[in-house]
């Protein structure tokens, strides 16, 4: 770990970026740190947060309206730039700003991340990047806006504190954070469990059309652009589908594909201990964690399923 305020001493311009297709942990870690620095850095310090527009469910997170969805590559370089919940390859529009910063700091929990910063705080045993951001903060200087954002990040990446990436340290952080008094129960309901009617129907269709492979140890399902368009949905609305198929009894690895464009699919994988999906994702140019990982692949859905299943089979027969 490093001393956050020491590394920021004297900084006049600070940038923060998260990964493309931001999820709850990306939103939580970026806005948790953003709110903390807004409160604790000198008033004349510029603090800018960069991220693609996340799902509407995060609209109530403080600072979401301040996010830069585009970047000016020719802007004055940042003194310090944080890359959160990813390595620099997934920073999207913020990548040139990170590359051009005087000091680069990378805080992440992806096992596939070798460290992109001058300073790296990368811990693959942590449940979320938000938990690692929390480690860097002085609890006495945290406010409700910051606490609520970090809480969302932790909740989302640990499946509401259920996945095996939840540790005693995670729970101690969460205990501190809910001490700020926000309505955590409604927050979980509204950002994690609640789905629109259209999302529920597409999820139902994806479940109905799911197929089993390798004697029921692998399940997969696919959502096409045509289906998303028919229901007025985008990739942001697909959260949760892969977890549903992982719940099928006997399934050790779940694979979910949604179409990004013609012959290009986002692949999400979830597994039990039997399969290390990070290794498979890295093989295909993506990354992630042992039990949750993703990548973008080109080809037809059938081809991609065949290629991914072959890698899964190699692990299952080891
Ligand atoms: P997803 O299936 O998109 O929910 O991602 C599962 C986990 O893998 C998350 O922690 C993602 O941040 C990570 N992940 C997804 N896609 C990639 C990628 N292309 N490169 C690195 N990590 C990824
Ligand atoms: Mn993430
Ligand atoms: Mn994360």
Plain-language structure description:
The protein is α/β, with parallel strands linked by helices and 318 residues long. The protein has helices spanning 4-8, 24-40, 95-99, 129-136, 144-157, 168-178, 184-193, 197-208, 225-230, 241-246, 277-283, 301-316, and strands spanning 13-17, 46-50, 80-84, 103-108, 119-122, 211-213, 218-223, 253-261, 264-271, 287-288, 292-298. The chain has twelve helices and eleven strands. It has a six-stranded mixed beta sheet with strand order 6-7-8-9-11-10, with helices on both faces. Strands 2-1-3-4-5 form a five-stranded parallel beta sheet. The chain is globular. The protein binds adenosine monophosphate (AMP) and manganese (II) ion (2 copies). The site of adenosine monophosphate has 14 residues, from strand 10 and strand 11. One manganese (II) ion is lined by residues 25, 85, 109, 128-129, 157.
Q: Topology of this protein?
A:
Layout: H1 4-8, E1 13-17, H2 24-40, E2 46-50, E3 80-84, H3 95-99, E4 103-108, E5 119-122, H4 129-136, H5 144-157, H6 168-178, H7 184-193, H8 197-208, E6 211-213, E7 218-223, H9 225-230, H10 241-246, E8 253-261, E9 264-271, H11 277-283, E10 287-288, E11 292-298, H12 301-316
Parallel strand pairs: 1-2, 1-3, 3-4, 4-5, 7-8
Antiparallel strand pairs: 6-7, 8-9, 9-11, 10-11
The chain binds adenosine monophosphate (AMP) and manganese (II) ion (2 copies).
One manganese (II) ion is lined by residues 25, 85, 109, 128-129, 157.
């Amino acid at each position: 770990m490093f001393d956050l305020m020491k590394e920021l001493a004297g900084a006049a311009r600070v940038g923060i970026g998260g990964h493309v297709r931001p999820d709850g942990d990306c939103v939580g870690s970026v806005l948790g740190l953003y709110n903390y620095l807004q409160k604790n850095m000198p008033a004349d310090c510029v603090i800018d947060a960069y991220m693609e527009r996340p799902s509407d469910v995060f609209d109530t997170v403080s600072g979401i309206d301040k996010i830069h969805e585009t970047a000016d590559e020719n802007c004055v370089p940042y003194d310090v730039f944080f890359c959160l919940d990813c390595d620099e390859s997934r920073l999207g529009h913020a990548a040139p700003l990170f590359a051009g910063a005087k000091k680069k700091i990378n805080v992440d929990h992806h096992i596939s991340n070798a460290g992109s910063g001058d300073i790296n705080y990368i811990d693959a045993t942590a449940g979320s990047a938000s938990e690692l951001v929390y480690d860097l903060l002085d609890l006495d200087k945290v406010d409700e806006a910051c606490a609520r954002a970090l809480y969302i990040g932790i909740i989302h990446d640990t499946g509401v504190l259920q996945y095996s990436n939840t540790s005693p340290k995670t729970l101690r952080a969460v205990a501190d954070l809910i001490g700020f008094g926000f309505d955590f129960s409604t927050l979980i309901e509204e950002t994690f469990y609640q789905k629109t009617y259209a999302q529920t129907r597409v999820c139902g269709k994806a479940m109905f059309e799911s197929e089993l492979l390798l004697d029921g140890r692998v399940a997969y399902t696919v959502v096409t652009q045509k289906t998303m368009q028919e229901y007025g949905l985008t990739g942001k609305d697909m959260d949760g589908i892969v977890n549903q198929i992982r719940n099928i009894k006997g399934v050790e690895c779940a694979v979910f594909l949604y179409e990004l464009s013609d012959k290009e699919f986002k692949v999400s994988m979830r597994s039990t201990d039997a399969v290390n999906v990070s290794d498979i994702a890295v093989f295909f140019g993506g990354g992630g964690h042992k039990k949750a990982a993703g990548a973008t692949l080109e080809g037809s859905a059938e081809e991609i399923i065949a290629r991914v299943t072959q890698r899964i089979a190699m692990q299952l027969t080891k």
